Amino acid sequence: MTKEKSTTFLNDRIILICPCHFGLESVLKREISDLGYDVLKVEDGKVSFEGDWQAVCYANVFLRSAERVLVKAGSFHAETFEELFQGTKAIEWERYLPRDAKFWVAKAASVRSKLFSPRDIQAVMKKAMVERMSQKYRLISFPETGAQFPIRVTLMKDEVTVGIDTSGLSLHKRGYRLLTAKAPISETLASALILLTPWKKDRILVDPFCGSGTFPIEAAMIAANIAPGMNREFLSESWENLIPKRMWYDVIDDAQSRVDDRIETDIQGYDIDDEIVKAARENARMAGVDHLIHFQRRPVSELSHPKKYGFVITNPPYGERLEEKKELPSLYREIGEAFRRLDGWSEYVITSYDQAEKYIGRKADKNRKIYNGMIKTYLYQFIGPKPPRPGKH
Asked: Which stretches within the chain are classed as H helix?
Protein backbone atom coordinates (compact mmCIF):
# COMPACT_ATOMS: atom_id res chain seq x y z
CA MET A 1 0.00 0.00 0.00
CA THR A 2 1.47 3.35 -0.97
CA LYS A 3 1.59 6.14 1.56
CA GLU A 4 0.34 9.56 0.56
CA LYS A 5 2.57 12.63 0.74
CA SER A 6 0.51 15.73 1.16
CA THR A 7 0.54 16.86 4.77
CA THR A 8 3.40 18.35 6.69
CA PHE A 9 3.99 15.60 9.24
CA LEU A 10 2.66 12.60 7.34
CA ASN A 11 5.96 10.73 7.22
CA ASP A 12 6.82 11.46 10.85
CA ARG A 13 7.57 8.57 13.14
CA ILE A 14 5.20 8.79 16.08
CA ILE A 15 4.76 6.82 19.28
CA LEU A 16 1.35 5.30 19.91
CA ILE A 17 0.11 4.21 23.33
CA CYS A 18 -2.66 1.61 23.61
CA PRO A 19 -4.27 1.04 27.02
CA CYS A 20 -5.66 -2.46 27.67
CA HIS A 21 -7.02 -4.59 30.51
CA PHE A 22 -4.53 -5.22 33.31
CA GLY A 23 -3.14 -8.73 32.92
CA LEU A 24 -3.60 -8.94 29.14
CA GLU A 25 -0.70 -6.81 27.93
CA SER A 26 0.98 -9.85 26.30
CA VAL A 27 -2.04 -10.36 24.02
CA LEU A 28 -1.99 -6.73 22.85
CA LYS A 29 1.79 -6.85 22.34
CA ARG A 30 1.39 -9.86 20.04
CA GLU A 31 -1.43 -8.16 18.11
CA ILE A 32 0.70 -5.05 17.52
CA SER A 33 3.68 -7.15 16.40
CA ASP A 34 1.41 -9.13 14.04
CA LEU A 35 0.40 -5.82 12.41
CA GLY A 36 4.10 -5.26 11.68
CA TYR A 37 4.92 -2.52 14.22
CA ASP A 38 7.82 -2.38 16.67
CA VAL A 39 6.72 -2.59 20.31
CA LEU A 40 8.74 -0.13 22.41
CA LYS A 41 7.42 -0.71 25.92
CA VAL A 42 5.01 -2.95 27.83
CA GLU A 43 3.71 -1.55 31.12
CA ASP A 44 0.82 -2.37 33.45
CA GLY A 45 -2.31 -1.80 31.40
CA LYS A 46 -0.67 -0.34 28.28
CA VAL A 47 1.62 -1.08 25.35
CA SER A 48 3.59 1.56 23.38
CA PHE A 49 4.83 1.14 19.82
CA GLU A 50 6.35 3.16 17.00
CA GLY A 51 4.59 3.83 13.72
CA ASP A 52 3.52 6.49 11.26
CA TRP A 53 0.16 8.19 10.82
CA GLN A 54 -1.17 5.22 8.91
CA ALA A 55 -0.53 3.16 12.08
CA VAL A 56 -3.28 5.23 13.75
CA CYS A 57 -5.75 3.84 11.19
CA TYR A 58 -4.46 0.26 11.39
CA ALA A 59 -4.42 0.20 15.21
CA ASN A 60 -7.96 1.54 15.52
CA VAL A 61 -9.42 -0.73 12.85
CA PHE A 62 -7.54 -3.98 13.60
CA LEU A 63 -6.60 -4.22 17.29
CA ARG A 64 -9.05 -6.41 19.20
CA SER A 65 -7.68 -6.06 22.75
CA ALA A 66 -6.79 -2.33 22.88
CA GLU A 67 -9.15 0.05 24.70
CA ARG A 68 -8.13 3.08 22.61
CA VAL A 69 -5.21 4.46 20.59
CA LEU A 70 -3.32 7.55 21.80
CA VAL A 71 -0.64 9.54 20.00
CA LYS A 72 2.08 10.32 22.53
CA ALA A 73 2.52 14.12 22.48
CA GLY A 74 5.20 14.24 25.17
CA SER A 75 6.39 13.22 28.62
CA PHE A 76 8.19 15.02 31.45
CA HIS A 77 8.71 15.12 35.22
CA ALA A 78 6.47 17.38 37.30
CA GLU A 79 6.10 17.70 41.05
CA THR A 80 4.56 21.20 41.05
CA PHE A 81 1.88 22.90 38.99
CA GLU A 82 4.54 25.25 37.61
CA GLU A 83 6.52 22.26 36.32
CA LEU A 84 3.30 20.79 34.89
CA PHE A 85 2.55 24.10 33.14
CA GLN A 86 6.04 24.48 31.67
CA GLY A 87 6.25 20.82 30.64
CA THR A 88 2.90 21.02 28.86
CA LYS A 89 3.80 24.31 27.20
CA ALA A 90 7.06 22.83 25.88
CA ILE A 91 5.16 20.20 23.83
CA GLU A 92 4.93 21.09 20.12
CA TRP A 93 1.14 21.31 20.07
CA GLU A 94 1.17 23.13 16.72
CA ARG A 95 2.60 19.94 15.24
CA TYR A 96 -0.74 18.21 15.84
CA LEU A 97 -3.45 20.82 16.41
CA PRO A 98 -4.63 23.19 13.67
CA ARG A 99 -5.55 26.76 14.64
CA ASP A 100 -9.29 25.96 14.76
CA ALA A 101 -8.87 22.72 16.78
CA LYS A 102 -11.24 21.98 19.66
CA PHE A 103 -8.90 20.79 22.40
CA TRP A 104 -9.34 19.95 26.07
CA VAL A 105 -7.87 17.66 28.72
CA ALA A 106 -10.53 14.97 28.74
CA LYS A 107 -9.01 12.77 31.44
CA ALA A 108 -6.25 13.09 34.04
CA ALA A 109 -5.19 10.11 36.15
CA SER A 110 -2.65 10.34 38.95
CA VAL A 111 -0.94 7.44 40.74
CA ARG A 112 1.58 7.96 43.56
CA SER A 113 2.29 11.52 42.40
CA LYS A 114 2.47 14.84 44.23
CA LEU A 115 -0.07 16.36 41.85
CA PHE A 116 -3.28 14.42 42.29
CA SER A 117 -6.33 16.63 41.66
CA PRO A 118 -7.66 15.78 38.17
CA ARG A 119 -9.57 19.06 37.88
CA ASP A 120 -6.52 21.19 38.71
CA ILE A 121 -4.25 19.15 36.42
CA GLN A 122 -6.76 19.58 33.56
CA ALA A 123 -7.07 23.35 34.12
CA VAL A 124 -3.31 24.00 34.30
CA MET A 125 -2.61 21.92 31.19
CA LYS A 126 -5.34 23.61 29.13
CA LYS A 127 -3.95 27.02 30.11
CA ALA A 128 -0.44 25.96 29.08
CA MET A 129 -1.69 24.63 25.74
CA VAL A 130 -3.53 27.88 25.03
CA GLU A 131 -0.41 29.92 25.81
CA ARG A 132 1.75 27.80 23.47
CA MET A 133 -0.81 27.87 20.66
CA SER A 134 -1.37 31.64 21.08
CA GLN A 135 2.34 32.28 20.55
CA LYS A 136 2.67 29.91 17.59
CA TYR A 137 -0.53 30.90 15.77
CA ARG A 138 -0.47 34.56 16.90
CA LEU A 139 -4.04 34.33 18.16
CA ILE A 140 -5.56 35.93 21.24
CA SER A 141 -8.51 33.51 21.38
CA PHE A 142 -9.30 30.21 19.70
CA PRO A 143 -12.53 29.52 17.80
CA GLU A 144 -12.37 25.76 18.61
CA THR A 145 -14.80 25.08 15.76
CA GLY A 146 -12.67 22.46 13.99
CA ALA A 147 -11.73 18.83 14.59
CA GLN A 148 -11.66 17.50 18.16
CA PHE A 149 -8.40 16.64 19.93
CA PRO A 150 -9.13 15.29 23.44
CA ILE A 151 -5.99 15.02 25.60
CA ARG A 152 -5.50 12.22 28.11
CA VAL A 153 -2.75 12.49 30.73
CA THR A 154 -1.36 10.08 33.31
CA LEU A 155 0.93 10.94 36.20
CA MET A 156 2.84 7.95 37.57
CA LYS A 157 5.35 8.69 40.35
CA ASP A 158 5.52 12.32 39.11
CA GLU A 159 6.26 11.26 35.51
CA VAL A 160 3.71 12.87 33.19
CA THR A 161 2.69 11.15 29.95
CA VAL A 162 0.51 13.15 27.57
CA GLY A 163 -1.49 11.48 24.82
CA ILE A 164 -3.95 12.69 22.16
CA ASP A 165 -6.94 10.35 21.84
CA THR A 166 -7.43 9.17 18.25
CA SER A 167 -10.33 6.79 18.95
CA GLY A 168 -13.09 8.83 20.54
CA LEU A 169 -15.52 6.22 21.85
CA SER A 170 -13.64 3.35 23.51
CA LEU A 171 -12.65 0.59 21.08
CA HIS A 172 -14.87 -1.93 22.88
CA LYS A 173 -17.77 -0.08 21.20
CA ARG A 174 -17.64 -2.19 18.06
CA GLY A 175 -21.05 -0.98 16.97
CA TYR A 176 -22.84 -4.34 17.02
CA ARG A 177 -24.02 -4.62 20.61
CA LEU A 178 -27.38 -2.86 20.72
CA LEU A 179 -28.75 -5.06 23.47
CA THR A 180 -26.88 -6.09 26.61
CA ALA A 181 -27.28 -8.64 29.36
CA LYS A 182 -27.27 -7.75 33.04
CA ALA A 183 -23.49 -7.96 33.57
CA PRO A 184 -21.89 -7.96 30.13
CA ILE A 185 -18.21 -8.63 29.53
CA SER A 186 -16.65 -6.00 27.27
CA GLU A 187 -15.82 -6.84 23.67
CA THR A 188 -12.12 -6.01 24.10
CA LEU A 189 -11.82 -8.22 27.20
CA ALA A 190 -13.69 -11.09 25.54
CA SER A 191 -11.46 -10.87 22.47
CA ALA A 192 -8.27 -10.73 24.53
CA LEU A 193 -9.30 -13.81 26.55
CA ILE A 194 -10.06 -15.78 23.39
CA LEU A 195 -6.68 -14.75 21.90
CA LEU A 196 -5.00 -15.88 25.13
CA THR A 197 -6.22 -19.45 24.54
CA PRO A 198 -5.00 -21.85 21.82
CA TRP A 199 -8.51 -21.90 20.27
CA LYS A 200 -8.58 -21.77 16.47
CA LYS A 201 -11.52 -21.46 14.08
CA ASP A 202 -11.57 -25.20 13.28
CA ARG A 203 -12.12 -26.08 16.96
CA ILE A 204 -15.45 -26.15 18.82
CA LEU A 205 -16.21 -23.23 21.15
CA VAL A 206 -19.12 -23.10 23.60
CA ASP A 207 -20.11 -20.35 26.04
CA PRO A 208 -22.79 -21.76 28.40
CA PHE A 209 -23.38 -18.31 29.99
CA CYS A 210 -23.35 -16.30 26.78
CA GLY A 211 -25.50 -13.35 27.90
CA SER A 212 -25.62 -10.86 25.04
CA GLY A 213 -23.31 -13.10 23.01
CA THR A 214 -19.98 -11.31 23.35
CA PHE A 215 -17.67 -14.38 23.53
CA PRO A 216 -19.30 -16.23 20.59
CA ILE A 217 -19.53 -13.05 18.49
CA GLU A 218 -15.89 -12.05 19.08
CA ALA A 219 -14.80 -15.64 18.36
CA ALA A 220 -16.78 -15.66 15.10
CA MET A 221 -15.23 -12.32 14.08
CA ILE A 222 -11.76 -13.74 14.78
CA ALA A 223 -12.63 -16.90 12.80
CA ALA A 224 -13.93 -14.89 9.82
CA ASN A 225 -11.03 -12.40 10.08
CA ILE A 226 -13.43 -9.47 10.51
CA ALA A 227 -11.50 -6.45 11.83
CA PRO A 228 -13.24 -5.20 15.01
CA GLY A 229 -13.24 -1.52 13.97
CA MET A 230 -14.34 -2.03 10.39
CA ASN A 231 -17.90 -0.77 10.87
CA ARG A 232 -17.49 2.18 13.22
CA GLU A 233 -16.11 5.71 13.17
CA PHE A 234 -13.07 7.18 14.91
CA LEU A 235 -12.43 10.69 16.14
CA SER A 236 -9.20 11.04 14.15
CA GLU A 237 -11.00 10.54 10.83
CA SER A 238 -11.56 14.32 10.98
CA TRP A 239 -7.82 15.07 11.49
CA GLU A 240 -7.26 15.85 7.82
CA ASN A 241 -4.22 17.99 8.72
CA LEU A 242 -2.51 14.75 9.78
CA ILE A 243 -4.31 11.79 8.16
CA PRO A 244 -5.73 12.13 4.62
CA LYS A 245 -9.18 10.53 4.13
CA ARG A 246 -7.64 8.31 1.45
CA MET A 247 -5.52 6.64 4.14
CA TRP A 248 -8.61 5.58 6.10
CA TYR A 249 -10.26 4.28 2.91
CA ASP A 250 -7.16 2.23 2.09
CA VAL A 251 -7.06 0.63 5.54
CA ILE A 252 -10.80 -0.21 5.46
CA ASP A 253 -10.35 -1.69 1.95
CA ASP A 254 -7.49 -3.80 3.32
CA ALA A 255 -9.70 -4.96 6.22
CA GLN A 256 -12.56 -5.88 3.87
CA SER A 257 -10.23 -7.83 1.57
CA ARG A 258 -9.19 -10.06 4.51
CA VAL A 259 -12.72 -11.11 5.51
CA ASP A 260 -13.68 -14.73 4.89
CA ASP A 261 -17.14 -15.31 6.38
CA ARG A 262 -17.92 -18.38 4.26
CA ILE A 263 -16.01 -20.62 6.64
CA GLU A 264 -17.62 -23.42 8.64
CA THR A 265 -17.52 -23.07 12.40
CA ASP A 266 -18.91 -24.77 15.50
CA ILE A 267 -19.45 -21.82 17.87
CA GLN A 268 -22.32 -22.04 20.35
CA GLY A 269 -23.86 -19.81 23.00
CA TYR A 270 -26.37 -20.83 25.68
CA ASP A 271 -28.36 -18.85 28.19
CA ILE A 272 -31.36 -19.69 30.38
CA ASP A 273 -33.23 -16.51 29.43
CA ASP A 274 -35.15 -16.53 26.13
CA GLU A 275 -35.02 -12.74 25.79
CA ILE A 276 -31.25 -12.68 26.32
CA VAL A 277 -30.80 -15.37 23.65
CA LYS A 278 -32.88 -13.25 21.24
CA ALA A 279 -30.70 -10.22 22.05
CA ALA A 280 -27.53 -12.29 21.42
CA ARG A 281 -28.86 -13.39 18.02
CA GLU A 282 -29.66 -9.78 17.09
CA ASN A 283 -26.19 -8.61 18.17
CA ALA A 284 -24.60 -11.39 16.09
CA ARG A 285 -26.69 -10.29 13.09
CA MET A 286 -25.47 -6.71 13.55
CA ALA A 287 -21.89 -8.00 13.63
CA GLY A 288 -22.46 -9.99 10.41
CA VAL A 289 -21.69 -13.35 12.05
CA ASP A 290 -25.14 -14.74 12.96
CA HIS A 291 -24.69 -17.53 10.37
CA LEU A 292 -21.52 -18.69 12.18
CA ILE A 293 -23.04 -19.09 15.68
CA HIS A 294 -25.73 -21.34 17.13
CA PHE A 295 -27.53 -19.70 20.07
CA GLN A 296 -30.09 -21.54 22.18
CA ARG A 297 -31.85 -21.44 25.53
CA ARG A 298 -30.20 -24.11 27.63
CA PRO A 299 -28.95 -24.34 31.24
CA VAL A 300 -25.32 -25.23 31.98
CA SER A 301 -26.54 -28.53 33.48
CA GLU A 302 -27.40 -29.60 29.91
CA LEU A 303 -24.02 -28.70 28.45
CA SER A 304 -22.86 -31.58 26.25
CA HIS A 305 -21.14 -32.19 22.92
CA PRO A 306 -20.39 -35.47 21.12
CA LYS A 307 -17.01 -34.34 19.79
CA LYS A 308 -13.65 -34.17 21.58
CA TYR A 309 -11.10 -31.36 22.03
CA GLY A 310 -13.50 -28.42 22.22
CA PHE A 311 -13.26 -25.23 24.26
CA VAL A 312 -15.52 -23.70 26.87
CA ILE A 313 -14.78 -19.99 27.29
CA THR A 314 -17.21 -18.33 29.66
CA ASN A 315 -18.01 -15.59 32.17
CA PRO A 316 -20.44 -17.17 34.68
CA PRO A 317 -22.27 -15.12 37.35
CA TYR A 318 -19.98 -13.70 40.05
CA GLY A 319 -22.67 -13.20 42.68
CA GLU A 320 -21.98 -9.49 43.10
CA ARG A 321 -25.34 -9.11 44.85
CA LEU A 322 -25.79 -10.77 48.23
CA GLU A 323 -28.92 -12.74 47.29
CA GLU A 324 -27.06 -14.27 44.32
CA LYS A 325 -24.04 -15.31 46.39
CA LYS A 326 -26.01 -18.10 48.10
CA GLU A 327 -26.64 -19.75 44.73
CA LEU A 328 -22.98 -19.79 43.62
CA PRO A 329 -21.83 -23.09 45.22
CA SER A 330 -24.57 -25.12 43.47
CA LEU A 331 -24.05 -23.22 40.19
CA TYR A 332 -20.29 -23.84 40.14
CA ARG A 333 -20.87 -27.51 41.06
CA GLU A 334 -23.08 -27.75 37.97
CA ILE A 335 -20.29 -26.14 35.92
CA GLY A 336 -17.82 -28.75 37.22
CA GLU A 337 -20.19 -31.66 36.51
CA ALA A 338 -20.82 -30.37 32.97
CA PHE A 339 -17.06 -30.05 32.32
CA ARG A 340 -16.45 -33.63 33.45
CA ARG A 341 -18.91 -34.92 30.84
CA LEU A 342 -16.95 -33.33 27.99
CA ASP A 343 -14.21 -35.49 26.49
CA GLY A 344 -10.74 -33.91 26.25
CA TRP A 345 -12.00 -30.33 26.35
CA SER A 346 -10.26 -27.18 27.61
CA GLU A 347 -12.18 -24.78 29.86
CA TYR A 348 -11.47 -21.10 30.51
CA VAL A 349 -13.59 -19.47 33.22
CA ILE A 350 -13.30 -15.78 34.18
CA THR A 351 -14.91 -14.98 37.54
CA SER A 352 -14.36 -12.98 40.72
CA TYR A 353 -15.79 -15.87 42.79
CA ASP A 354 -12.87 -16.99 44.95
CA GLN A 355 -14.36 -20.44 45.65
CA ALA A 356 -14.69 -21.32 41.95
CA GLU A 357 -12.07 -24.11 41.92
CA LYS A 358 -13.45 -25.66 45.11
CA TYR A 359 -16.97 -26.10 43.72
CA ILE A 360 -15.88 -26.87 40.14
CA GLY A 361 -14.03 -29.72 41.83
CA ARG A 362 -10.65 -29.32 40.16
CA LYS A 363 -7.61 -27.11 40.55
CA ALA A 364 -6.93 -25.00 37.48
CA ASP A 365 -3.77 -25.72 35.48
CA LYS A 366 -3.16 -21.98 35.24
CA ASN A 367 -4.69 -18.99 36.96
CA ARG A 368 -4.29 -15.40 35.76
CA LYS A 369 -5.37 -12.26 37.61
CA ILE A 370 -7.27 -9.84 35.35
CA TYR A 371 -9.10 -6.63 36.18
CA ASN A 372 -12.55 -6.43 34.63
CA GLY A 373 -13.12 -2.72 35.16
CA MET A 374 -12.57 -2.27 38.89
CA ILE A 375 -13.43 -5.90 39.69
CA LYS A 376 -10.49 -8.21 40.38
CA THR A 377 -11.21 -11.44 38.52
CA TYR A 378 -9.33 -14.65 37.83
CA LEU A 379 -9.10 -16.56 34.59
CA TYR A 380 -9.11 -20.22 35.62
CA GLN A 381 -7.55 -22.26 32.82
CA PHE A 382 -8.31 -25.99 32.71
CA ILE A 383 -6.19 -27.13 29.80
CA GLY A 384 -7.22 -30.23 27.88
CA PRO A 385 -5.11 -32.45 25.60
CA LYS A 386 -4.19 -31.35 22.10
CA PRO A 387 -5.97 -33.21 19.31
CA PRO A 388 -3.80 -35.64 17.32
CA ARG A 389 -2.37 -34.28 14.10
CA PRO A 390 -4.22 -35.31 10.94
CA GLY A 391 -3.01 -38.75 9.85
CA LYS A 392 -1.82 -39.67 13.36
CA HIS A 393 -3.81 -41.88 15.70
From this structure: 25-34, 53-62, 81-89, 118-137, 187-196, 214-223, 245-258, 274-287, 322-325, 328-341, 356-360
